[in-house]
Design brief:
This protein has 688 residues and is α/β, with parallel strands linked by helices. The protein is built from 20 helices and 27 strands. Strands 1, 2, 3, 4, 5, 6, 7 and 8 form an 8-stranded mixed sheet that branches. It has an 8-stranded parallel barrel with strand order 9-10-15-16-17-18-19-20, surrounded by 6 helices. The structure holds acetamide and zinc ion. This is beta-N-acetylhexosaminidase.
Length: 688
Amino acid sequence: MRYILPFLLIALCWGCQPHKASVIPYPQEITLQKGSFRLTESTPLYTNLQGQEKQDLAEYLQTLPAPFNGSLQEGTPTGEGIFFHKLPEAASPTDESYVLNVGDKQITIEAGTTAGLFYGLQTLLQWISPEGKTTGAGTVPATVIRDTPRFAYRGFMMDVSRHFRSKEFVLKQIDALARYKINRLHLHLTDAAGWRIEIKQYPRLTELGAWRPVEKWKDWWFGEGGKTYCEAGTPGAYGGYYTQDDIREIVRYAALRHITVIPEIEMPGHSEEVLAAYPELACSGKPYTSGEFCIGNEETFTFLENVLTEVMALFPSEYIHIGGDEANRKVWESCPKCRARMQAEGMKETSELQSYLIHRIEVFLNNHGRQLLGWDEIIEGGLAPNATVMSWRGEEGGVKAVRAGQKTIMTPGAYCYLDTYQDAPPTQPEAMGGYLPLEKVYLYDPVPDTLTEAESRLVYGVQGNLWAEYIPGDEQYEYMMYPRILAIAETGWCQPENKDYPNFHSRALQAVKWLQQQGYHPFDLAHEAGRRPEALTPVSHLAIGKKVTYNAPYNNTYAAQGDKTLTDGQRGDWTYSDGAWQGFISSRRMDVVIDMEAVTDIHSIEADFIQVTGPEVFLPCEVVISISEDGENYTELARYNQEVNRDQAVCFKKYGWQGETRARYIRYEARSGKQYGGWVFTDEIIVR
Ligand code: ACM
Ligand code: ZN
């Protein structure tokens, strides 16, 4: 109840005076007072910061509108003014808390660290009711805001490999991330689609590995003659990379905004581009034969350590992300060098080869004062002793890590993957699949209920990931990023009892307007279409609760509600993984019989299917509907045949029969095509 009060007070305040300001992430404690402060374009700025700290704040302030870009004076204000007051002591060097005190004469931001001062300023900037669009002048309601984050790590991952983004684009996003108190930018710098960082010792990485002949990732990956690279400067070459000077500029720009940039260098998988440039590091010694480094080859370690040495010189971040995800271990099985390594080290499984590499790289990083961060596959074959696990395949990896006493960062696909659809897929540009609206991102809690108090403390934070396979353009990238990253920002900052979706939604609407005014391209939240209408209410029909016999089994991962699913009245939403859609893959068919318990008059039988081409969920190529009175002899009522149309990234289609008949048993069969195989998913067989 304690936390309801501030929301109410603000609502009242909005009612009695035209204060439109709203803050994301929502501060821990807001105490409104009588009166307000009039901020003009010439309100003076003061600080007790000295030296480099003062210079850094002054440099950042220069980028803001008046009065914030005025000169930063040393000392305390005697008359009107804004005072950045660093306290003599901080709770810890990484303390980010602050107190923002707005009186009618002065605004004071107090914090033990410059990060705290910076976050107090971000809150103030959002707390002003602006008078115009071009200055920072306006009215600030008198308040005391005491604020501190829930998690130390609040991240965003930007994939710059699948489609390269300019340095300017990265800097622009850093501005917005800092506003919402995100404090880590994880750059996915290397992947099959392109190597994006200059490494002086290995120039072929960017002469060849950063360029491809086909612009759109989807065409390059699936198209004819795809997945190849070309020399820089080839007419039509698409790609790019950051020079080491670019990286230094990004890192410094982010640091001024209290964001640490974490580089990710993928290993041992996702490295096709490296092995095209340096094929001697592949098991076969030839380019275009695999995406995995040869772990039996010492040269692999020489290469990785040399690359990481240059990377560490550019990024002061404590963490270096080494990927570790989705390595295909098949190539290692038949490689003499890899087999020799396994024998020498007494390994039985190829997963131990992967962990051998991760452990060795961890020792290397630790010896250089850095910590290893990797995707949750780094647990397999034995977790490296000091590593932090980024849990993406659900939360299990993170739970294992904290139970082993190690830190985790939660970024499960179902809540934190922003490459999914954020609204009804038929209204959206093609995305990776899934359905992750703002509300679902917002409702995520990074601390699983099953953890003890001590384990919970090892959940270091939360991160939103925006992969870019299906995002060629910059505007589309921003569209996928905002406002969903704001929900991650609030989850990372606010205590769970302080979160409230309707309240957040109204603040997010304002944030979307602000982002648009600043030249960003967020999703238009005000016109969100919302959930699939069918999914909103249970459907009633004759087969509800009737027994379903499966002649072909459903897949256990996509069992939905098990044997009840197809006759429970619950329809599926915009994605197949929502617990209402049931998936079939073995023998590429669904084949079920509903027992109506007695011979029944039937006028229609129908079922919907979903197609999401990315994960190979297709509409069926053949549907057969038949009936029987005795369960032995069936009469066919309807049959449909069609080819899979892969152009429709996400679609829904109903296959049914209408007429007059009587039957006790209804058999519904649906097969996926021979050409592509893949999944068949349906949610309900509706009988009327
Ligand atoms: C991942 O999505 N492969 C980490
Ligand atoms: Zn090998």
